[in-house]
Amino acid sequence: KRYPSYAAAACIARSYKSTMDTVFGVKYDGGVVIAADQGNARSILMYQRNLDKVVPLSSHSALGVSGPNADLVNFSEYIQKNIALYELSNDGMKLSTHAQANFMRGELAAALRRGPYQVNVLLGGYDADTESSSLYFLDYLASLQKVNYGCQGYAANFCLSIMDRDWKEGLTEDEAVAIVEHCMKELQTRFLIAQPNFIIKVIDKDGVKTAKYGADPADT
Q1: What contacts 24+ positions apart, CB below 8 Å, involve 108-116?
Q2: CA–CA separation, 67 vs 211, rounded Å?
Q3: Smallest Cα–Cα separation from 54: which of 69, 39, 40, 64?
């Protein structure tokens, strides 16, 4: 009988961890709502319950990330700093949300055969040039899809049907937030894993702002 190598077992464990995290995204008319659970855990141990997994990439885009904390921080900071470098190197020219999504996809694809980032993400942004918002779904295998709503992790089993029923063209910000809160309530009722705290961020023409949180990320 063949047993998996330690490296393979570690990869499987890290991939499993990324499905235990929860990230939601809902696009509305004029912006995007992204929410994530605030737990930071490994195996049977909970490290913290106030982690901010929705990372601002630019003034008008943010990335909701699920995965092991090391890859979560490494990947999100790598993308964030490269986007900032591009802006500094090109006289303040900002990458569109579409360009940011394709840059991320390229980095995930390039890493696949070197050492994959075990992250599944949702990218939301608002583009002033087109006065429109957009939401992108990416996974660790570098698949990319533009969506109106999305969910990463086991939470998708509970929440995609809610999003499919409640989402409609012309949603307002309050309606989008209500969909996300409905999904959170469903998880807290049905999901085996306790996720008591979530952080909700909104990206619109005014930038990235925190709408609500269960535990203050600044409370260290």
Answers
A1: 108/138, 108/140, 108/141, 108/142, 109/142, 112/141, 112/142, 116/11, 116/140, 116/141
A2: 23
A3: 64
pLDDT interval class at 90 (50, 70, 90): very high
Phi (first) and psi of residue 36, to 5 degrees = -150, 150
Cβ neighbors of 192 (< 8 A, separation 6 or more) are: none
How far apart, in whole angstroms, are the C-alpha atoms of residue 137 and residue 139? Answer: 7
- pLDDT score, position 18: 56
**Treating both helix axes as pointing N-terminal to C-terminal, what angle do 173-190 and 156-166 enclose, rounded to 10 degrees?**
150
Which pLDDT score, from 0 to 100, does residue 219 have?
80
List the alpha helices (DSSP H) in 21-96.
69-89
Cβ contacts of residue 62 below 8 Å, gap of 6+?
A: 32, 34, 54, 55, 56, 123, 124, 125, 201, 203, 208
Return the C-alpha torsion angle 49, 152, 211, 39, nearest 10.
0
Contacts with 179 (C-beta within 8 Å, 6 or more apart), sequence order: 26, 33, 149, 162, 163, 166, 167, 171
pTM of the full structure: 0.89
